[in-house]
Amino acid sequence: MRKLKQFIAGDEDGDRGESFLEEDSDGSCSLTATQRMYAFAACLAAGLAFMFLSLIVFVKPIKFALLFTFGNIFAVGSTAFLIGTGQQLTMMFDSTRVYATSIYLGFVVISLICALLIHNKILTLIAILCEICALIWYSLSYIPFARTMVSNLMVRVFDTEL
């Protein structure tokens, strides 16, 4: 654990610099770096558990949608413990990923509306499929040139000459 903490803090050669776990953009977090790591791990584990449980109830689309969507929210939100909520929101709504974030959050809301208010299984499944695609596109926005590479690949795969 000490080596992981040193790596994250950038303290490999003994210099004690400020890490991304110790800096807090708005100064409102009173958790220590270790507590933030544990909170991140717990939130991520809860999100993954919800997503795993959603696969068990896959035949019941409404329960699947609720568990899967809450799992996504926990998993995506877990990084706020590492970098702070202000930095998380700044990164999410950065100009390079504002559309991906908006579409993803929109489909999260649509999935919950279809599951909780409308109770339509077909609409819920369509919303969940769109949510998964939006989550993949949102996740790719954090990898340099990943969205461009996937877009070019999709053009090549589906570009058939008649």
TrEMBL record:
<dbReference type="InterPro" id="IPR007305">
    <property type="entry name" value="Vesicle_transpt_Got1/SFT2"/>
</dbReference>
<protein>
    <recommendedName>
        <fullName>Vesicle transport protein</fullName>
    </recommendedName>
</protein>
<dbReference type="GO" id="GO:0016020">
    <property type="term" value="C:membrane"/>
</dbReference>
<feature type="transmembrane region" description="Helical">
    <location>
        <begin position="64"/>
        <end position="86"/>
    </location>
</feature>
<dbReference type="GO" id="GO:0005737">
    <property type="term" value="C:cytoplasm"/>
</dbReference>
<dbReference type="GO" id="GO:0015031">
    <property type="term" value="P:protein transport"/>
</dbReference>
<keyword id="KW-0472">Membrane</keyword>
<keyword id="KW-0812">Transmembrane</keyword>
<dbReference type="GO" id="GO:0012505">
    <property type="term" value="C:endomembrane system"/>
</dbReference>
<dbReference type="InterPro" id="IPR011691">
    <property type="entry name" value="Vesicle_transpt_SFT2"/>
</dbReference>
<feature type="transmembrane region" description="Helical">
    <location>
        <begin position="38"/>
        <end position="58"/>
    </location>
</feature>
<comment type="similarity">
    <text>Belongs to the SFT2 family.</text>
</comment>
<feature type="transmembrane region" description="Helical">
    <location>
        <begin position="124"/>
        <end position="146"/>
    </location>
</feature>
<keyword id="KW-0813">Transport</keyword>
<keyword id="KW-1133">Transmembrane helix</keyword>
<keyword id="KW-0653">Protein transport</keyword>
<feature type="transmembrane region" description="Helical">
    <location>
        <begin position="98"/>
        <end position="118"/>
    </location>
</feature>
<comment type="function">
    <text>May be involved in fusion of retrograde transport vesicles derived from an endocytic compartment with the Golgi complex.</text>
</comment>
<dbReference type="Pfam" id="PF04178">
    <property type="entry name" value="Got1"/>
</dbReference>
<dbReference type="GO" id="GO:0016192">
    <property type="term" value="P:vesicle-mediated transport"/>
</dbReference>
